[in-house]
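To the team - 6-O-phosphono-beta-D-tagatofuranose complex, inputs and output below.
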Amino acid sequence: MGAEELTAEFGIAGILDFKHGLVKAVTSLDGMIGELYLQGAQVTAWQPPDERPVLFTSPNSAFAPGRAIRGGVPIVFPWFGTSRHTPTAPQHGFARTATWHLDGVETTGSGSLTLTLSLGDGDVGSPFWPEWFRAIYSVTFGQTLSLRLAVQNRAMHPILFEDALHCYFAISDVAEIAISGLAGTTYIDKTDAARRKVQTADLVAITAETDRVYLDTSGQCVIADRGWRRRIVIGKDGAASSVVWNPWAEKAAAMIDLGEHAWRGMVCVETGNVGDDEVRLAACGEHQMSTVIAVGAL
Ligand code: TA6
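Output:
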């Protein structure tokens, strides 16, 4: 559907509008701002009243059909990174570049707006993962940002997949933040030949390229940002992994959709089921994972 048809069916005057180009939904409600592209069902902005933007989205992103948008919350599915089974398949799966269907819009009395989107095997027809599935994604923009991804197995056999909500957070400066909630867990260090290490320090500080898949983590993560004196709290459910990523200067310089200096103002803290934590979903079963993101003063 194009922007006009979406506005006719789902638009709410003064609250929800749809923009041309790569089609996106733009919401503004009681001082809160939110934005979501139908491609990838990708949230690219969320800003509660009187707050700075919480998500980082690169203005250098391609914003073009079939090209991944750099920032916001890309949905990683059905594999994370390079597919272990088919290394030639596109990085991080097909969900982030496919166009999702907008199935419903709902406002609630508490100043929030929920968009529900879906994607099925018929929409993607991927040769790399020819499974029968339906994914349903609900996004609630409000005082918090709530994201829930449900995957239904429509086949008569179990399916295996990885998923992640690859959140890019806006920060004052990478030197000014510390991430808590991961102490004592084991991570795969993708910057060091995928060696497994234990997070011994209470806090994760970003002092070099960082690319870590933390396994078997169920608690919330908190980004404490001294520069902006705020905390971003990332709660999760149904997600056994957390991923922490910052490309640092050299890698960032090679990423034209990021730009040379933007890496200092972003960090990814992702919620998902990755690597050892991949999901094995029984025939006709459903798996849900969700994250709730909140901000507050430090
Ligand atoms: O989640 C971390 C990661 O897998 C990194 O290895 C890094 O490459 C990043 O995602 C971004 O991947 P992308 O395909 O969006 O360039």
